[in-house]
Design a protein that fits this description.
By secondary structure, the protein is mainly alpha-helical. It has 3 helices and 2 strands; from the N terminus they run βααβα.
C-alpha cells in the first residue's frame, strides 16, 4: 500500500495591505478597549489623553479600512488577511458608533 502525498504548489502570497489592515484594526480595537476602561476607572471625568488616543485610533481605523478595500482589488493573493482586516475594521467602526451614540444619549 503506497502512501499518496498531496502537494500544492502556488505562487500566491498574503497581501501586504491586507496584513496592515488587520494590524491596524487590532491596534484600534485594543486602543478603544483601553480608553473605555481607563475612562471608566476615573468615573467618566474628561481625561484628554483618552480622547486623543481614541481619535488617533479612529484615524487608524479608517486608514485600515481603506487598506482593506485596496487589498481586495489585488489579484492572485490569499484572502485570509484581506477579509479579516475588513471585518475587524468594520467591527471597530460599529463599536465607535455605539460609543458615540451612548455618549450623546447620556
Amino acid at each position: 500500500m503506497a502512501i499518496r502525498k498531496n502537494y500544492v504548489y502556488t505562487d500566491k502570497k498574503h497581501s501586504t495591505f491586507g496584513i496592515m489592515s488587520c494590524v491596524f484594526g487590532l491596534i484600534t480595537l485594543v486602543t478603544f478597549i483601553i480608553c473605555i476602561s481607563g475612562s471608566y476607572k476615573v468615573a467618566g471625568i474628561g481625561v484628554e489623553r483618552y480622547g486623543t488616543a481614541a481619535f488617533l485610533a479612529a484615524i487608524f481605523n479608517f486608514v485600515g479600512l481603506g487598506l482593506g478595500i485596496y487589498s481586495i482589488l489585488e489579484t492572485e493573493r490569499f484572502k485570509l488577511f484581506r477579509i479579516a482586516g475588513m471585518v475587524i475594521n468594520v467591527i471597530d467602526i460599529i463599536f465607535l458608533g455605539v460609543i458615540m451614540y451612548i455618549n450623546i444619549a447620556l
